[in-house]
Amino acid sequence: MAVKIRLKRMGKIRAPFYRIVVADARTKRDGRVIEEIGKYHPTEEPSLIEVDSERALYWLGVGAQPSEQVEALLKLTGDWGKFKGDKDAVSTVKTKEAKVEFVADEKKKPVLKPKAEAPAKVEAPAEEPAAEAADAEAAEPAADAEKA
């Protein structure tokens, strides 16, 4: 049985991403696979390339033939060099830079004002209805006493 390591296309029209798979050479491009060993997203900047090196080297060792595209990806990740016996093979895949956190200038005037005064105003009206309720309760017993 001839085994190939190739790309399985996924995604939408004009938005492809691929899985690096091990499949029988006679199966369809997106057909049944033996094992998925990685991912490739060419539309991201920089392109995302993830390969399970251990499994890729295993399949290359047992005779699986990579397609041209997969061979190029394996060269980028350094797995092809390891398979061919180059002990100095290193991954040359570019990774995304970490986003820099936004820091506001301390010298500039803040746009938002502190809300220290607002809660004090809210508390004062809350006390007034309670005082009115207490006055109303005191007035009710006086009214009951007048009726009796």
From TrEMBL:
Keyword Ribosomal protein set for record: yes
Which portions of the chain have biased composition (kind: Acidic residues)? 125-138
- Gene Ontology molecular-function annotations: structural constituent of ribosome
Task: Give one Pfam family, short name only.
Answer: Ribosomal_S16
- Name the GO terms of the biological process aspect: translation
UniProt region (Disordered), positions on chain: 111-148
Where along the chain is composition biased (Basic and acidic residues)? 111-120
> What SUPFAM superfamilies does this protein map onto?
Ribosomal protein S16
Question: Gene3D superfamilies in the record, alphabetically?
Answer: 3.30.1320.10
Any Gene Ontology CC annotation: small ribosomal subunit
Which UniProt keywords are given for this protein, alphabetically ordered?
Answer: Ribonucleoprotein, Ribosomal protein
* NCBIfam families, A to Z: PRK14520.1, S16
Of which family is this protein a member? Belongs to the bacterial ribosomal protein bS16 family.
Under which name does UniProt file this protein?
Small ribosomal subunit protein bS16
